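TA notes. Do not distribute before section.
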Amino acid sequence: MILVTGGTGFVGRNLIGELKDREVRCLVRSPERAAPMPGVELVRGDVTDKGSVLNALGGVDAVVHLVGILMESKGLTFRAVHVEGTRNVVEACKEKGISRYLHISALGTRPSARSGYHKTKWEAEEIIRASGLDYTIFRPSVIFGKEDKFTNVFARAIRLSPVIMVPGDGRNKMQPVFVKDLVRAMAESIERPEAKKATFEMAGFEAYTFDGIIDSIASVLNRSPLKVHIPMSLMRLNAALLECVLPRPPITRDALLMLEEDNVTANNALPDVFGIKPTGFMEGMRTYLH
């Protein structure tokens, strides 16, 4: 039995599809509101509540911890979810004698990170590395696929407007990884001895500038929008105002900090460790963007 936290999210649903031959249990805050997941046991709980995690671990052999947030909101901070949530899951595993633990972190995670997102992801990793568990940490670049909140957001904007606003100069680089490739590697790693006590950076076949990502999405949609670059100073001011008035603003100052740096790797575990040829960015998008 595998317990998956965050199983109702974008990566979680794809991973559960890859684990179709395994018994899977999902920790969810509201089972009655979750979309149907045939063959998957849904258990009420929250990673910020250690007791609920302990209750969900009966009969479990491995845990996959996917829960994370991209922006903070009232009562839901990076520290509460990434750090304390991870601490709760790790400690619950130790108390129940469960040693196999898989964790989603993020490319760019490091102790000197500028963003709160990456800083707290690093703190979570440190908790895991000190735990004594047989862990595997995955650090993906931006993840794309059907129902993602990345390419689909820009695709929607491109369909609605001939003009696309781009934060900054558009030269920051990303190495988008196709969700199907990522979850295949994750599923395989559960039983691979060499994946224990390891951290893997996961990325796509090639790096794209932010401008290149917009151009690629537009190309798949057969559109040619005009890109207008908005200075980061103006973007930060706008984000600060939106954070004051909206519970879930479309952009935050923390997200802008991440957009100001490259998100690429020369140590891509997909081909180097798992022997998986990364799906091309446009090739992958053509399977769901039309």
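Switch to the second chain here.
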Amino acid sequence: MNLKSTFTISIFLFLFIGPLAKAQTNGVSVYKFLNLTSSARAAALGGNFMAIKDGDLSQVLFNPSAISKETDNKLALSFVDYYSDISYGYASYANSFEKIGSYAATIQYISYGNFVYADQNGQTGGNFTASELAMVLGWGRELDSLFSIGANLKMIYSGYEDYTSYGLAVDIAGSYINPEHNLTVSLTARNIGTQLKPFVSRNIESLPLEINLGVTQKLKHLPFRYSIILTNLHKWDLTYYDPNDPNNKVDPFTGEPQKKDAFETFLDKAMRHVVIGGELLPTKNLSLRIGYNYQRRQELGIYNKMGTVGFSWGIGLRISKFQLDYSRATYHLNGSPNYITISTKLSDLF
């Protein structure tokens, strides 16, 4: 791919995604489970997606340009023990074809557990459940030795008691891979779509659009790989005003919030887009991981007692013909979810 072709594709993506991003950032979105990190490896590196192309099938749900011949005939299962009775995860399988590229089929789900029917007087009568499901078909193809592209097509179902909704969405992604410098750069635009059947008639809600850019590089003389992810590039200001924040000062005469230092405000807004991760690779069978998510720390930490909120860690083990990944991510002082991902290549088993 020459420079002119790359520039043309970039302009197309900007013109195509720009209006969609503007239309979908306002208001409350549905199907937010689509953006929950399911991969134990990604969760350990701070959450969100990964810009790493090494045949890891757990990446393809968030970055379809990672679908390649290296993921051929692989199976990946992931489970997240979330808060309360909530759990979610996915199952993925990939296959490659010589002329048309590589494909990955994924079932992504979330279960919110059981709920008790109750009226305004506290009278109970039975139970009900709530869950959401997405069936995802992904495609990836290498354009040349440096560039690869990919896309996911998602059919979405959401059910809360007797209220149901259906939707359709696509992800598009592109990656630049330079083996000589151990560098990978990925750009993804996720959840571009619409509700086909809303929960309430004629009340169409937007989907949780995300446009992210990731850069990953492995050091030349050390077994260490670092990653920097820039999230939500379609929306600059991700902050909100919390009247309970002791750092927010109020004018004693007018009662209006006082403006913070301009540079401090700019830095806070910029850092809410940044996720940092590191992966130590002492052997080919062992990976030690750590990550930091600034936005998570600012939104979910308790004032004056932040603890390790926003930090995450994990480990990857190659045991026989299986890859086992485990991680924990601190969302709140109350506890940390457990992430487990198991993957294998079926042709190695049979």
